[in-house]
């Protein structure tokens, strides 16, 4: 087993990784920016290194220097920042360190959405109608959209996390959105390549947790439902999906395994799909080559610790659970963000009150505490409120009580939105799609 671990991340995910590592007796090293010096993850690590300015979590040289200075044996990237940077993964291994993640080649292959689509199609994984090559000009985009049929999704090929995406209903809007997405992609990702893909007005977002094992096998755990979104970014996830029956589950898990095998995947990853609720057809969306924000709901219905499994795989050891065993119960995750609950605009600030709910089936993975400050430099996620119940109705009941009991004062927060969602008839029915938030607003 790995003996010392540097966490190249911040906030709740750094704290989450530290918790498992300490339970396993692994020495933990936290890097932190000047802006994060007072956050709980810094105090909870065995050793800390200040790497400077707020943007330093993307500074590969500073992180590798911290690893060398502290004698770290391995690096866990969390999610975001450098977690899906193939060059960083390669540099970690070139420095003689263990990378707690997939091979750099797999990250690179899945990092470009067009390349990923083509790889998946060649492997037999269903993909939505779309371009096989970047639409290099707006005229090429118009030609592709005419062949695919409107509406279409205009996507940054190098994007991720719901960023760099826009819907075009006709040629006029396509010309406008193409220029916007291309400019955004160049600015954010350094790559202006654009993909044109069929847009499904009513669709569900379902994903599968995979693990590439040390012995070369790829296994799929259960699926997660991620259709409650704002601006194509997830707010609520649940597992299992209320839209997936046993037959569909078998098909979608098999496709996820095929996807992982196509790139010789190792460690934790997620195969994301779009599901047509009317036909039961699903299409590959992307593969996230890292641990997902929503991994706790999979942990709860399987009774496992995915960070522990990541460390075991990175150490060359077998996993410690039976992936063929039946799941039990139902889990829901609510992303508690520092944002306006109506328009979802960021609202950072100093935390005056922070009281987390407790009780049976209640788990809170948080990055903040009373007296800390949510700064404007990072994603607005403050905590993940995770509920586990005997069934979906039980999990929802626990979610209502936990939302009511979570006390936050200082930054704006979206707890009022969750209180509204948990009474929404469409959500309660389980028959909802990615448009649910816009219909509520």
From TrEMBL:
Residues annotated as domain Biotin carboxylation: 1-441
Keyword Ligase carried by entry: yes
Keyword Cytoplasm assigned: no
EC number: 6.3.4.14
The organism of origin for this protein: Paractinoplanes globisporus
Protein name according to UniProt: biotin carboxylase
Domain ATP-grasp, chain residue ranges per copy: 117-315
Keywords: ATP-binding, Biotin, Ligase, Nucleotide-binding
């Amino acid at each position: 087993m790995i003996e010392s671990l540097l966490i190249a991340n911040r906030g709740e995910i750094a704290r989450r990784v530290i918790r498992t590592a300490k339970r396993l007796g692994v020495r933990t090293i936290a890097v932190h920016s000047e802006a994060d010096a007072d956050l709980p993850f810094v105090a909870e690590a065995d050793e800390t290194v200040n790497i400077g300015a707020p943007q330093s979590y993307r500074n590969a040289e500073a992180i590798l220097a911290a690893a060398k200075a502290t004698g770290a044996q391995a690096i866990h990237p969390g999610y975001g920042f450098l977690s899906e940077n193939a060059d960083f993964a390669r540099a970690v291994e070139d420095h003689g360190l263990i990378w707690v993640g997939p091979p750099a080649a797999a990250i690179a292959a899945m990092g470009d959405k067009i390349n990923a689509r083509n790889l998946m199609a060649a492997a037999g994984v269903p993909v939505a109608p779309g371009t096989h090559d970047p639409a290099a000009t707006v005229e090429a985009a118009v030609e592709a959209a005419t062949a695919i049929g409107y509406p279409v999704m205009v996507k940054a090929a190098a994007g991720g996390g719901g960023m760099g995406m826009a819907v075009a209903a006709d040629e006029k809007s396509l010309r406008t959105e193409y220029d916007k997405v291309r400019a955004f992609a160049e600015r954010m990702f350094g790559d202006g390549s654009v993909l044109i893909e069929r847009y499904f007005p009513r669709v569900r977002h379902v994903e599968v947790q995979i693990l590439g094992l040390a012995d070369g096998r790829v296994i799929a755990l259960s699926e997660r439902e991620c259709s409650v979104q704002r601006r194509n970014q997830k707010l609520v996830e649940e597992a299992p999906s209320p839209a997936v029956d046993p037959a569909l589950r078998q098909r979608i898990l098999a496709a996820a395994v095929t996807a992982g095998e196509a790139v010789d995947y190792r460690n934790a990853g997620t195969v994301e799909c779009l599901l047509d609720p009317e036909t039961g057809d699903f299409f590959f969306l992307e593969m996230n080559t890292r641990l997902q924000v929503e991994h706790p709901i999979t942990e709860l219905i399987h009774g496992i610790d995915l960070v522990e499994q990541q460390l075991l795989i990175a150490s060359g050891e077998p996993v410690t659970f039976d992936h063929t065993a039946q799941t039990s119960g139902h889990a829901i995750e609510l992303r508690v963000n520092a944002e306006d609950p109506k328009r979802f605009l960021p609202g950072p600030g100093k935390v005056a009150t922070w009281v987390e709910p407790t009780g049976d089936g209640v788990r809170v993975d948080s990055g903040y505490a009373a007296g800390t400050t949510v700064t404007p430099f990072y994603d607005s996620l403050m905590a993940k409120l995770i509920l586990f119940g005997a069934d979906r109705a039980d999990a929802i009941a626990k979610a209502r009580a936990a939302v009511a009991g979570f006390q936050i004062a200082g930054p704006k927060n979206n707890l009022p939105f969750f209180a509204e969602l948990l009474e929404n008839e469409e959500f309660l029915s389980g028959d909802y799609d990615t448009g649910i938030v816009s219909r509520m607003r």
